[in-house]
Design brief:
Largest sheet: 5 strands, antiparallel
Protein name: Fibronectin type III domain containing 7
InterPro entries: FN3_dom, FN3_sf, Ig-like_fold
Shape: rod-shaped
Radius of gyration: 72 Å
Strand content: over 45%
Number of helices: 1
Structural class: mainly beta
Pfam families: fn3
Keywords: Signal
Oligomer: single chain
Helix content: under 10%
Organism: Cricetulus griseus
């Protein structure tokens, strides 16, 4: 029993020995020990460690809590790249061999240095350099140095907590190297930035801009030291840009009206472009309206319009004629000029205006003539044929005048280029309003003041003349339009007879028999206008015979005898009795007439009457009454002798 435990122990020891042998032949390499970890560049950390026997490589690991970055290196030292600047990292290392990787080493902390500032450099003047940069994370200060690029000469170095520096008293045209870096709270510098810059020429000064003549811009500037050549840029407010490259100090550009141009000038040398100087703006005069047209032209007013033009904020319209000036201002492209003189040629100019440039005084003008003046009717004369002659006064040049007479019975016109014209065919008994209008190529004048016109009353129709008695005639007619009274005149070489009445007939007395008269009729209106209506000849009847006597011709015959009146006339004799009417017409030239077979014992009315040329027997001559008895047979003239029974006695 005692030998059995020893045997067991022996077997256990042998087994452990074999296991150790197996394990030793497959064990990973040793764990490296980090000597130090440090950062010289802001995106990397360098690690140094003791070399592990049998290791063929090493795995470096950097961890910041958010990211893990690994890299494999062959030997110490090794560098982990791709890191963030100014960041604390946990650094570990593993050795690598054919049998595998070791466990991670104990960690060591290391912090990347600050990032390099990003520099912006410029040359504000020929002897200075301006350096600017953005703030750097975790930096508390910056160091900036300037030196010649060839390494010769002085080095300018400045420390600052700001983010910009200016180095002055440098040599113009020299290439300088600028280097800058930041440091942290521990004074550890970060990455540096390096750039080269040559001083450069200053921006040109004393820039002047002129526009002479309109449409041509001249840009001039002062000469710049170190400037090899110049470029002037001109950009219009519609976005179009042109430039001029010259070694001189002046450039010329074409310009257009109504634009604002932005002008900048740069100097150039081997260092490049000068800084931007002042930017000038120049506004050209607003454009002139070119399509001015007269919308309405009257005798005293003118409406004109045009298309809007570029650059104009206001339009000034001026009309001049001699010493007369009429103006209007408006923002709209139209204007109404009033209080103008008629038939006058005005010089019309429309000026465009802008607040910056003022008025464009180069705008052209044009002539527009106002409509003619209204004529003034001076006189209207009338004749007997329903015609009027209108006279007016006007000083229009080259005008045609139209005269219009308008009334209830129609419209009548006449035209003339002079100062008078005639209107005929006006109806009688009418009232008209007469106006005159002047017309030229420009237009028509306002009508003249109207003048009332009344035509003569209409003449009556059907004038009739009838003889009432030997010395009285009756003239009658129909009523005429508008006539209020009438005047009838009967005139001959021995005198006249006249009648004025408001009726349609008139009796005229004191007429001489056997005379040729002229009968005239005048119609008179209520206003006194007179129409000479009718003229006609009238011959009064022959005079009634005188001394009418009866003579007995046998038992049944009577001779009627009379004394003929002056002039030649035909007569007719009539005897009116209870037993009949007996008529006797003598031969021409005789002054008696015989009536036979007349019954006696009757009373007769005897009348001897002249017979008119028309055959009409006049009835106004005196009548005599005779008694014819049947006693006796005496021939010859019977005269009254008292109680003689054989006589024919007049009663």
């Amino acid at each position: 029993m005692a030998g059995r435990p020893e045997k067991v122990l022996f077997l256990i020891g042998f087994t452990l020995l074999c296991l150790k042998t197996v394990i030793s032949s497959t064990t990973a390499p040793e764990i490296p020990t980090i000597d130090q970890a440090y950062s010289k560049i802001s995106n990397s950390i360098t690690v140094e460690w003791t070399t592990v026997p049998g290791a063929t490589g090493y795995l470096l690991t950097a961890e910041d809590g958010d990211t893990i970055i690994e890299t494999t290196v062959a030997s110490s030292p090794g560098t982990v790249t791709g890191l963030k600047a100014a960041t604390l990292y946990q650094i570990t290392i593993r050795s690598i061999s054919a049998s595998g990787r070791s466990q991670a080493s104990s960690p060591k902390q290391a912090k990347t240095v600050l990032a390099a500032p990003v520099l912006e450099v410029g040359s504000p003047s020929p002897d200075s350099i301006f350096v600017r940069w953005d703030a750097v994370y975790m930096a508390i200060g910056f160091s900036v140095s300037v030196m010649r690029a060839n390494g010769l000469g002085r080095i300018w170095k400045e420390n600052t907590t700001n983010t910009s520096l200016t180095f002055s008293s440098l040599e113009a045209g020299t290439l300088y190297t600028i280097k800058a870096y930041a440091w942290n709270a521990n004074g550890i510098p970060g990455d540096d930035s390096t750039c080269n810059l040559r001083t450069m020429a200053c921006a040109p000064g004393r820039v002047t801009i002129q526009e002479d003549p309109p449409g041509h811009l001249s840009v001039a500037w002062s000469n710049v030291e170190l400037g090899d050549y110049y470029v002037a840029f001109v950009k219009s407010d519609d976005g179009l840009e042109v430039h001029c490259n010259t070694s001189l100090t002046q450039c010329h550009f074409l310009s257009e009206c109504g634009f604002t141009y932005f002008i900048s000038v740069f100097a150039y040398n081997k260092a490049g472009q000068s800084p931007l100087g002042d930017v000038f703006n120049y506004t050209t005069a607003p454009c002139c309206p070119s399509d001015i047209s007269a919308v309405l032209v009257s005798s005293d007013r003118m409406e004109i319009a045009w298309s809007p033009v570029r650059g104009a904020e206001l339009y000034e319209t001026k009309a001049t004629a001699g010493f007369s000036v009429v103006e209007c201002n408006d923002t709209a492209p139209a204007c109404t000029l009033s209080a103008l003189d008629c038939d006058t040629k005005y010089n019309i100019t429309v000026y465009s205006f802008s607040e910056v440039r003022g008025s464009n005084l180069s705008c052209s003008s044009q002539y527009i003539t106002t409509a003619p003046c209204s004529p003034e009717i001076k006189n209207i004369s009338k004749d007997a044929f329903s015609t009027i002659n209108v006279h007016w006064q006007s000083a229009n040049e080259g005008a045609t005048y139209t005269v219009t007479a308008q009334g209830k019975k129609g419209l009548f016109q006449c035209s003339s280029t002079g100062e008078t014209c005639m209107i005929g065919g006006l109806p009688c008994g009418s009232v008209f309003s007469v106006t005159a209008v002047a017309e030229t190529q420009v237009g028509k004048s306002l009508p003249s003041y109207s003048v009332p016109l009344e035509t003569v009353p209409c003449c009556p129709a059907g004038l009739t003349v009838a003889q009432v008695t030997q010395s009285i005639i009756n003239v009658s007619w129909t009523i005429g339009t508008v006539a209020q009274t009438y005047v009838t005149v009967l005139e001959s070489h021995i005198g006249l007879s006249k009648c004025h009445t408001h009726q349609n007939h008139c009796l005229l007395g004191c007429i001489a028999c056997g005379i040729n008269y002229t009968v005239a009729l005048k119609a008179i209106s209520p206003t006194g206008l007179t129409a000479d209506c009718a003229y006609q000849s009238y011959s009064s009847s022959a005079c009634c015979p005188l001394g009418v006597k009866l003579y007995r011709l046998g038992p049944n015959g009577i001779r009627i005898h009379w004394q003929a009146s002056r002039g030649s006339a035909n007569y007719s004799t009539d005897l009116y009795g209870s037993k009949g009417i007996f008529t006797c017409v003598p031969r021409a030239g005789l002054s008696f007439c015989d009536v036979t077979d007349i019954p006696c014992g009757d009373v007769y009315t005897v009348m001897v009457s002249p017979v008119a040329e028309t055959g009409l027997k006049l009835t106004f001559c005196p009548k005599k009454i005779y008694s014819v008895t049947c006693s006796g047979s005496t021939l010859g003239m019977v005269i009254y002798r008292g109680k003689k029974n054989d006589t024919v006695s007049p009663r």
